[in-house]
Amino acid sequence: MTQNIDDPHHVNSFWHLESGTWDTRQPQRLLPIATRSDIDIIDVLETIFLLDIKHLACAENTLIFDRQRGLIKTKLTTRQIMMTYAVQLGFSGTQLIKRLASQLGLSMHKLPVIHGAAILMPLGTAKRGTTSWYNRHYLAHIEDQGFMTALIYDGPITVRVDASKRVVTRQLAKAGQLQLAVQEHHRRRSVPNQSSPTVLDADQAMMQSYTDQVLKHYGILALPGEISWLTRQFFGKL
């Protein structure tokens, strides 16, 4: 597969050879032309869509739409892929998004995962299992197609999703608000004298909660007092 990462608008030639609209309601037609891979780490600046196909009777569980690598099929579920990505983000991942959404008075339903210019948004409720995810990055515009919506990315690559334009528009607006809030959060943290004690305390509590979750996930035993001491030591060195 050819790549040219120096040109941000360049896409893999696969997307030109297989021109047209990619209908996510018909994954059976996409499976034969996808390349098999067991990658568990996605490039969030190039991955524009994660299609959940766990319900199909096949070895694969996810189709990855990647601007540079083409169409990839993997046995990993969208949940596994996104959890790996979230762990990479660590302290700046889902915990930060939840806190900022609460501060902004936004719905906690179907929150995005944000990393710089990339904003991955779930089409369904991820807590209930696997779901499909689409990226706001490189999204040029959207078109109403009845109960469906066409996501048109630079390239161009058109992905047809099972959601109304009203729902997608509302989700994009919320994601934009959260992206600005994340940027402001990191800007504040980069200037120590602008960090108020309340912000520091909130960050400390969030980090302690996140550390506790990670330790439990990997089955590592640690006393609450030890976690609290390590957190205070970390913030004391900022």
Instruction: Determine Rg (CA atoms, Å).
Output: 20 Å
SSE run:
HEHEEEEHHEEEEEEHHH
* Nearest-integer average pLDDT: 82
Helix content: 25-40%
Low-pLDDT segments: 1-6
Beginning-to-end CA distance, first to last residue: 45 Å
Structural class: alpha+beta
Strand order of the largest sheet: 2-5-4-3-8-7-6
Largest sheet: 7 strands, mixed
**Overall morphology:** globular
Quote the beta fraction. 15-25%
What is the count of β-strands? 11
Q: Secondary-structure map with pairings?
A:
Blueprint: H1 14-17, E1 21-23, H2 27-30, E2 35-36, E3 47-52, E4 62-66, E5 70-74, H3 78-89, H4 94-104, E6 113-115, E7 118-122, E8 133-135, E9 139-145, E10 148-153, E11 157-161, H5 165-189, H6 197-217, H7 224-236
Parallel strand pairs: 1-11, 2-5
Antiparallel strand pairs: 3-4, 3-8, 4-5, 6-7, 7-8, 9-10, 10-11
Helix pairs in contact: 6-7
Features:
about 240 residues, alpha+beta, 7-stranded mixed beta sheet, 4-stranded mixed beta sheet, 7 helices, globular, disordered N terminus
Characterize the structure shown.
With 238 residues, this protein is α+β, with helices and mostly antiparallel strands. It contains seven helices and eleven strands. Strands 2-5-4-3-8-7-6 form a seven-stranded mixed β-sheet, sandwiched between helices. A hairpin with a 3-residue loop joins strand 4 (62-66) and strand 5. The chain is globular, with a radius of gyration of 20 Å. The termini are far apart. The model is unreliable at 1-6 (pLDDT under 50).
